[in-house]
Specification:
Elements (H helix, E strand, L loop, with lengths): L1 H31 L2 H26 L7 H17 L5 H21 L8 H21 L19 H24 L1 H11 L1 H6 L4 H27 L9 H14 L4 H20 L6 H16 L3 H16 L25 E12 L2 E12 L3 E5 L6 H8 L7 E6 L2 E2 L5 H7 L1 E3 L12 H9 L5 H10 L14 H14 L4 E5 L7 H18 L2 E5 L3 H7 L2 E6 L2 E7 H5 L2 H8 L1 H4 L1
Parallel strand pairs: 3-8, 3-9, 6-7, 7-8
Antiparallel strand pairs: 1-2, 1-4, 4-5, 9-10
């Protein structure tokens, strides 16, 4: 426990230490670089801030945004306008207001992202960038035609001190992004990029995750645009063209800009590549071609520079971290689920559930009652309707007949996220656990409540999961399933639907999982609906079983009676095996 607390303190202190080092390096560079290289250094810092924003919306949230420099233009335009109006507060206040304005525009542009994704979203954002570019050429920036330069802060009026000021702004942005990425917003961005269904199933807002990603990204772009206005004095539309936004996006993808250090590296490349081409007598526009080639390589290989470096580090750390042994089970830890079955009041009641896809009835009048603190098995052959049942009950198939209620409250019309917040959780057959998170970050995101480190560690150990600091990317699919179960259990739901949780586990792990699942209802005060093909696991934990076949209830009741039912045996084994 002491080691975990120390590790957490180190993670909190790290960005401030790194920021102090960056400020020291920035000061030394401001004193040692010549005037021309100071200007280039400011450009690199400004680009790094814009790329840092792209790292959020693209690298973390997985959305394509090709208008980052358009958001920067908004920030520069607001700073230029406030400068012409001689608004109170000076450059720093103007910079903040420009960032806020860009963030608002980012939310408006991000609204299509709620329905669009991939190439369609790319077209929308690129179209916005093109329209904004035409508009800027026509109206120009405030003060540009009259030659009114943007006034820098008094303490940072010369180029060298302004470079240090830009480094200071970059450090503040980097620290803010570090804590955002480490918190619930960051987890929601990474979760929605990996699986929108998985995000909604834990009660998180998919809309909120996408809009906050766009807002923060645009805000950072607005800051970079305001710094450009202070750098050049008279900003022009040529600094914010769509082709430059496209090149910046490609550079962000190539460098892995969701990592702060890689965003800084991307900013350096943004300046260094054109400068080298210039010195070699090659037109600087060829830099866009180079960025494009590097971006295509990153997209086709599914990896980028930053990800490659971090993956090598995580794998080395994973070899140093032995898996955690599971907590031994006490004989008096809790009553087994089989003995405690059907003794509580109904908590989840499904009546006459029906789902049709055209003329095909996937579910036809299915009813199920889940008593409090019990484990109910839901089994059936492939295609029986188990997954359709789960989707309908948890809100992913809202168009159905019949009714679903939780603790007596009807759930009709509620979204999956709202049902999850009320206490109806589920897991998935497919892997929905974002690999870019640590186990601790994922568990805290899924739990949606304050967890002490002790509670988190104890539950992970109970399910035999690796230590909390382990990267999910470094564990196998079977282990991620256990982490998914542990995280949902820690949310303390009223009912948790486990959809084949033992998939990917060995026989010994099946047995261990069954032993622990039997103790979950009494230990954590919840009910479980277990969907499984492994009948040995079902027998070991389920007091009652409902069998589906061709979308209808074939049998329902105590497990001994149901599993001995000839119709159930026939559905599973076939008539030949019964003879």
């Amino acid at each position: 426990m002491r080691r975990a607390s120390s590790s957490r303190a180190v993670r909190i202190a790290f960005p401030f230490v790194a920021g102090a080092v960056a400020l020291g390096v920035g000061y030394l560079l401001s004193e040692s670089l010549s005037g021309y290289f100071v200007f280039l250094a400011v450009s690199a810092v400004v680009a790094a801030i814009a790329i840092l924003g792209l790292g959020i919306v693209t690298g973390s949230a997985g959305m394509i945004a090709l208008c980052q420099l358009t958001f920067a233009a908004v920030g520069a335009w607001v700073v230029s306008l406030l400068n012409v109006l001689q608004a109170p507060g000076g450059f720093v206040v103007w910079l903040v207001l420009g960032a806020v304005a860009a963030g608002v525009v980012g939310v408006l542009v991000g609204l299509p992202a709620l329905r669009l994704r991939g190439v369609n979203l790319a077209v929308v954002t690129l179209g916005f960038a093109a329209a904004a570019d035409v508009t800027l050429v026509q109206i120009q920036f405030p003060g540009a035609t009259d030659g009114i330069p943007v006034l820098r802060p008094d303490a940072f009026s010369d180029d060298r001190s302004y470079f240090f000021f830009s480094v200071l702004v970059l450090v503040v942005c980097g620290i803010a992004v570090y804590f955002l990425q480490s918190g619930r917003w960051g987890s929601s961005w990474k979760s929605v990029a990996f699986s929108e269904r998985g995000t909604a199933s834990v009660g998180a807002s998919v809309r909120g995750a996408k809009l906050t990603a766009f807002a923060v990204s645009a805000t950072l772009a607005g800051i970079s645009g305001g710094l450009i206005a202070g750098q050049v004095g008279l900003p022009f539309a040529s600094s914010f063209t769509p082709i430059q936004s496209l090149a910046l996006y490609v550079l962000a993808v190539m460098s892995g800009a969701y990592l702060i250090d890689m965003a800084v590296f991307g900013g350096i490349l943004w300046v260094a590549v054109p400068e080298l081409l210039k010195r070699w007598g090659i037109p600087q526009d060829w830099a866009f071609v180079i960025f494009g080639v590097l971006g295509v390589q990153a997209l086709t290989s599914g990896s980028n520079l930053g990800q490659g470096i971090r993956n090598a580090w995580w794998k080395r750390q994973a070899r140093k971290t032995p898996p955690r042994p599971a907590v031994p089970l006490d004989a008096d830890d809790a009553l087994g689920a089989v003995e405690a079955a059907d003794t509580g009041a109904p908590v989840l009641v499904v009546e006459g559930l029906g789902v049709a896809f055209g003329q095909v009835k996937a579910l036809d009048g299915v009813s199920l009652v889940v008593p409090e603190r019990s484990i109910v098995g839901l089994i059936g052959p492939n295609g029986a309707g188990k997954s359709t049942f789960t989707d309908a009950v948890t809100g992913f198939l809202p168009q159905h007949t019949g009714s679903v209620s939780l603790d007596g409250r009807p759930l009709q019309g509620l979204s999956p996220a709202k049902r999850a917040r009320l206490g109806l959780r589920r897991t998935f057959q497919q892997d929905r656990v974002p690999p870019t998170l640590t186990i601790e970050a994922y568990v805290r995101f899924v739990a949606r409540r304050r967890l002490t480190l002790g509670e988190l560690e104890e539950t992970l150990a109970f399910f035999g999961c690796p230590p909390a600091r382990t990267r999910l990317q470094s564990v196998d699919v079977g282990t991620r399933r256990l982490v998914e179960v542990a995280a949902n259990v820690l949310s303390r739901p009223r009912v948790l639907i486990l959809d084949e949780p033992a998939a990917g586990l060995s026989h010994e792990e099946h047995v261990e999982l069954g032993e622990r699942l039997r103790r979950v209802p009494a230990r954590f005060g919840m009910s479980i609906v277990l969907i499984e093909h492994d009948l040995d696991l079902v027998r070991s934990v389920c007091g009652s079983i409902t069998v589906l076949d061709f979308g209808q209830v074939l049998a329902s009741g105590p497990q001994e009676r149901v599993l001995a039912n000839p119709a159930v045996v026939k559905a599973y084994m076939g008539e030949t095996e019964m003879l």
